[in-house]
Structure formats: C-alpha cells, structure tokens
C-alpha cells in the first residue's frame, strides 16, 4: 500500500530547539511514516545537530540549501516527490503530541471530504467556547473539527491526492492561501477537536522557549512576527493571542478572502503598521 505519511521538517538556525523537536517527531512516526529533512543555511550548530539523524532509517531524504529559501521550494520538493497517501510539515521549533498522526489519519480515512486538518498551538485560556462552538462540527467516525479555511503550517495532515488535483504551491502563494484555495474547491479544513496540542517553542510562554526578552526576539525573529512588524515580546505575544481569537471567529465563506474583501484586510494591516501597531494577520 506504500507509506502513510511523509513529514517535512525545514531547519534553519535551530540547534537550540532541534534536540527536542526532531527526536519527538521521529518518536511519533508509525512504521509507514517517514521524515524529509531540508536544511537552509550554513549554521554549524544546526548542521551538527542534524548529522546523527541524516542516515536514520526513519529519514527518507535530506537536502541542504545554502540559501534560506523558506517555505515554497522545500514544500514543493516534498509534495512533488512523495509517494505517501498523506503529506505534512512540522516546524523545527515545534513539539508535536504523541499520537497526532494516528488521530489525524484516522479522521481523514473516515471523512474523504477532509482536506487539511491540523494540531492546535494556542493555550487553554485563549479558547473561547462561546465563539468557537459556532464553528465546531461533528463528522463521521466520531471526529470533530473546529472548522477554519486554513490551519497553521505545522502539525497538519493533508491528503496527497489534493496536490495531484490542485497543483503545487504557487510562486507567491502562502500555505494559508493554498488551504483557502482547497476550501474554495470544496475541501473541509480545520483543527481536530478536542485539540491535538502542539508546543510552539518560539511562543514566549512555552516552557521551552528561547525568547525571553526583546533582544532574543530580534535575534530569532519568527517569520510571522517579521511580516507583521513586531519588534517586542509584548507585541509578539499579543499577535499570538490575536491569532487564536481570529481562528475561532474567522469566516468560513471563501469569498471573504478574495477580491475587494481581501484588499480591505490588506489595507487594515498597512494602517496598523503606519501607527506602530503589529498587523496581527
């Protein structure tokens, strides 16, 4: 039948997290799952941390790019070459939960309409049942989702057949945009509920975080923080909190994220930057 899932991990200046994130990912694989490693840059500490895993039986492929090409090229490398039934990505600064692949693959098996379903990286006190209940739905096999048109790009599981029918990530397309494109075509996306926890270690509230002050943030600068003009730990934490709220309230109508509505959202983001506030997605 072939492999169940191929999981991409992109590494970049992540030696401080990799000793936790990669062993955890490998421990959660089933016998039909493999990891694909893509390393960006020449940080010697990260390369040293990777060396012991490059020839691990659970690692299908390893690629080293001296240029930091971020998301599109590594993702399309996996999507284009994998023969697995499902594809995924786990960030080098994230700790997945034990059993995450088993739960998500079972949900897919029972619900052929599922497109991209994922783990949840937000905190218990950020969950708003009064808001989220309107988006939580039950599906076949006793599975439930907090439905949303997109999920985070780590700890998700996607049917590989969707790549065959909808193509690879476009030249200027984000993973969020790709998820919305699938939803527009009828795929059901969302976060498995009850939530499958993912520890995002670049969240300053994580017990494993390396971001303790503003200097740490500027040194590490998560991509989402950089895109939103964040410069302080307080702003970064506020953005993460706002993201949790947005996922529980965002429209399930794909038209919201196209045409004039999308332009209006972009205008609000630019306005926040002009007055010195983080854009918060």
TrEMBL record:
Residues 7-152 form the Glycosyltransferase 2-like domain. SUPFAM superfamilies: Nucleotide-diphospho-sugar transferases. This is Glycosyltransferase 2-like domain-containing protein. It comes from Nocardioides flavus.
């Amino acid at each position: 039948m072939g492999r169940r899932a191929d999981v991409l991990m992109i590494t970049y200046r992540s030696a401080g997290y990799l000793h936790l994130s990669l062993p955890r990912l490998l421990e959660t694989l089933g016998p039909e799952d493999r990891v694909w490693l893509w390393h960006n840059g020449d940080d010697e500490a990260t390369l040293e941390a990777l060396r012991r895993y490059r020839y691990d039986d659970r690692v299908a492929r390893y690629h080293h790019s001296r240029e930091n090409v971020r998301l599109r090229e590594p993702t399309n490398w996996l999507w284009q070459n994998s023969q697995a039934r499902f594809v995924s990505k786990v960030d080098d600064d994230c700790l997945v939960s034990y059993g995450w692949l088993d739960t998500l693959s079972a949900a897919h098996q029972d619900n052929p309409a599922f497109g991209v379903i994922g783990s949840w990286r937000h905190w218990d006190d950020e969950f708003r049942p009064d808001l989220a209940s309107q988006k939580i739905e039950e599906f076949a096999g006793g599975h439930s989702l907090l439905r949303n048109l997109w999920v985070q790009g780590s700890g998700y599981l996607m049917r590989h057949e969707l790549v065959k029918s909808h193509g690879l990530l476009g030249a200027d397309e984000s993973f969020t945009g790709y998820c919305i494109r699938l939803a527009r075509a009828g795929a059901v996306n969302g976060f498995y509920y009850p939530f499958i926890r993912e520890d995002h270690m670049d969240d300053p509230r994580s017990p494993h975080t390396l971001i303790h002050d503003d200097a740490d943030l500027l040194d590490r600068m998560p991509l989402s923080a950089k895109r939103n003009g964040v410069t302080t730990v307080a702003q970064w934490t506020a953005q993460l909190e706002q993201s949790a709220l947005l996922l529980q309230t965002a429209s399930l109508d794909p038209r919201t994220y196209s045409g004039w509505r999308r332009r209006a959202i972009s205008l609000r983001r630019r306005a926040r930057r002009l007055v010195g506030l983080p854009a918060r997605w």
